[in-house]
Every structure is written in C-alpha cells, then in structure tokens.
Design brief:
Glutaredoxin, 3 domains
Length: 293
C-alpha cells in the first residue's frame, strides 16, 4: 500500500474514529521528514474534524502584523444656529411643565402659587399674540377669516344665504334639463308622506322632475304617477325610505342625495355639491353607472 492510499484511508477511518494499520507509521514518518518550519498537513490532524477551517499562511508575517488604517471621518456640517426665541420658548415651556408637576406632587401653597403665576404670564403672552393677529387680519383682507366662506355676522349671513340659494336654484334648474330626482317610498311610511310635499314643491319651484318609485307598490299623495319598483331599489341598495337619488338618464349615472326627511335648502345644497366635479372627486364610489337601454 503506497503512502497516498494510506493517507486517504486514514482520513476516512479518522472520520469513523478508527486508525488504519500502518497509518500511524506513515504519519510519523511524514511528520518526521517534514521540516519544522513547514505547516503541518491537514490530514495529519484528523482530530480537528472534517469541518475545521483555517486560513493558509500568507508567508509575510510583517504584512500580517501591519495595522489596518482607520477610515477617514467625514466632516460633519455645522448645524444651523437656532433662533433665540425658540430657545427661550422651550425653556419657558419646560419650566412651566416642571412647576406644574411639582405642584401636583406637592400641592402646597408656595408650589401652586408659583405655577399659577408663571401660567398667568404665559396666558398674557398668548392673549397679546391673539390681539396682534386680529389687528393683522383687519389690515389684511386675505387673512381675515370673517371674510372667507360663511360669514359670522347675522346681517351678512342673511345676505350670504340668500345669494347662495339663488345660485343653487339656478344650478338645479340647469341640471333639470337632463337630470331627475328618484324618490323611493313606501305607502305605509309616515316619513315618506311628510317628505312628499317638500319634493312636490321643489319640483314646481326649481323645474327638476321628481320620479316617485313605490317600493311596496302602494300610492303616494302628490305623485299619482308613481311607478312600482322593478328591481332598481335593490340595484341601488335602497334599505331605508324615504331615499332620494339624482339621476341622469341619458348617461345612466345615478348619485345618492340622502335618506330621510330633507328640507328644500338641504336638497339644493346636496344636489349642487354632488353634481359638481369637486363633489364627484370627493367620493367617486358613490356614483353608479347603469346600462342605458
């Protein structure tokens, strides 16, 4: 048996914990014949196991001992200087919080008075800020909240609502050329009977046709031509009555207006909102499209 086969056999038997005959002699001979400065063979150290790993020697001890240079630190940009007002505000806020916590944990007269005095100073500063902001708003119409949207003055509010009603009525009249209101009701529903006169007057005043649909097939005063439900209530998921929808028959588009008893002003407001492009963008899932026959 030659030396290579002895070493291979020794490796296999070493895995099993068995020494091959003659392997010890071969290992001893190999180790003795090798120079002392040569690295020992992996196979001669079978006790390390098959999964033992070690890096081969580089042959340059001085290079191995050479220190690795540390990475250069990147220069840190200086943080911008903070406004002194922010520093003072944070200090005041922290002091007020500390005084309050002390007064809560030890509510004697001195602690409570100290907290209340500092709180009064903060309230005075906030009140002065509100006064300055009010003067700025008076001098700058674009920043005056009383001039934006719905007025707060009673006289101005009356003018605003009257103008808004006129504009919405004109908008509904224009919609009435190709839109109708679907009115779902039941003949035994007292709320439906209370709501019917409002819809009847709305149709006469604003020129938008109201198509009444009887869910139970019964009649409704003011709408002698009410149609029986042909399944459209189920399609539109009408679960409560009275219910009103804005429909555009030519396009097959139907939008819910509301459920329950509504006033004339509520009808005008809701119809104007849901028929506008902005209103449709707010809730696009509310608009349903039915097939046009």
């Amino acid at each position: 048996m030659n030396a290579a086969r002895v070493l291979n056999l020794a490796a296999v038997l070493g895995l099993l914990g068995v020494m091959a005959p003659g392997a010890a002699l071969a290992q001893h001979t190999t180790a003795a014949s090798a120079p002392e400065d040569m690295p020992r063979s992996y196979w001669s150290d079978r006790w390390r196991g098959w999964h033992f790993y070690e890096d081969p020697p580089s042959g340059d001890d001085e290079a191995d001992r050479r220190p690795v240079p540390a990475p250069l630190a990147r220069p840190v940009a200086p943080s911008p200087a903070r406004a002194p007002e922010l520093i003072e505000f944070e200090r005041l806020q922290k002091t007020l919080e500390d005084f309050r916590n002390i007064a809560i944990m030890r509510p004697n007269e001195d602690n409570v008075r100290r907290y209340m005095e500092l709180e009064a100073q903060v309230v005075n500063r906030a009140s002065y800020f509100a006064d300055v902001a009010q003067r700025v708003a008076w001098a700058t119409p674009d920043l005056d909240p009383t001039l934006q949207g719905r007025p707060v003055n009673a006289q101005a509010l009356e003018v605003f609502e009257r103008q808004q009603r006129t504009d919405r009525s004109a908008s509904v009249a224009a919609l009435g050329k190709d839109h109708v209101l679907l009115f779902f009701f039941r003949s035994d529903c007292p709320y439906c009977h209370a709501f019917a006169p409002t819809l009847e007057a709305f149709q006469a005043q604003h020129g938008m046709q109201v198509v009444a649909v009887s869910v139970d097939g019964g009649p409704m005063r003011g709408f002698p031509n009410a149609r029986p439900d042909n399944g459209i209530a189920t399609t539109l998921r009408v679960t409560q009555v009275p219910a009103v929808f804005l429909a555009q028959p030519s396009a097959g588009k139907i939008v819910p207006i509301g459920t329950g008893v509504l006033s004339e002003s509520q009808l005008l407001e809701r119809i104007s909102i849901v028929s506008s492009p902005a209103g449709e963008a707010m809730l696009p899932s509310a608009t349903q499209h039915l097939a046009v026959p």
